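User: My instructor asked us to take a sequence, write out its structure as tokens, and then describe one feature of it. I'm not sure where to start. Here is the sequence I was given:
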Amino acid sequence: MMDRSAEETVVVTGVGCVSAVGVGRDANWATILAGRGGVEPIHRFDASEFPVRIAAQVGEFEPARYMDAKDARRADRFIQFAVAAAREAVDHAGLTITETDYNAERTGVIIGTAMGGLATFEDGVRTLHTKGPGRVSPFFVPMMLPDMATGIVSIQLGAKGPNLATVSACASGAHAIGEAAATIRRGDADVMLAGGSEAPVTPAGVAGFAAAGALSTRNDDAQHASRPFDRLRDGFVLGEGSAVLVLESLTHALARGATPLAVVSGYGTTADASHIVQPSPGGEGAARAMALAVARAGLAPTDISYINAHGTSTRLNDAYETLSVKTV
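Assistant: Let's start with the prediction itself. The structure tokens for your sequence are:
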């Protein structure tokens, strides 16, 4: 077991987010405190023939506020969200990334995504079939690649440190934060921008999840559609958005006068090795991940006062997640 006293403490110094309940950290928090949800009828495409006609969509969002308009046109929506969230997080942290401050090479980016540029992929395939291969955009591939949110954020902000994407379905963003903290602890960076970004509210995205029976069909009661652990739950609500944290070594944060907001004290990651979508019986995999994180942090289960649940509102996940929490 590694001596935790010899490790660098990793802290959060900045937060940025874009979601269906607000663009920006303050807007999100104000809406949450007001008890308002962000689920509404789908307006990004005509969903009238779909069995699922609701989603959590980002409303008033102007990508040109966060990046050059030309660059924005060459970036999928999930990339645009990531840039906006990253810029807000960096501003919130009071962080300046420059060559002259010699911190560009010590600042990295890890942004997770499950779906990547799904809208770009759909548009490209549609163009291929209706107009031929000669009309497919030369930006088709770089706009849809899962790691391009990470890549474009690093280009926009000048971060030249470790740069990669985590792609692990619903755990992608959590893995990004955990791996970013590990990157700092092993000395490969002083600062990491870490989080997740998704924009899967597209015809194929909604149709695919609906076909799997994973989505709520509470189309006439959108505000109550997502109801994890509720007896009447009938699936999750597809959403879009991004959240990015600025993680730093405590030494680096204090040296530049930053205010730590939280400590990333432990991280555990496991695999169920059981089924492509169903959790392992009894929630065994999730229980091991939580137990590892608690132990890694040097805590006891009784020290934990809040659990941020996966809470998919699906029958099996909610049942097994409950069991895993009780196990730990």
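For the description part of your assignment, you could build on this observation: The radius of gyration is 20 Å. Try explaining in your own words what that tells you about the chain.
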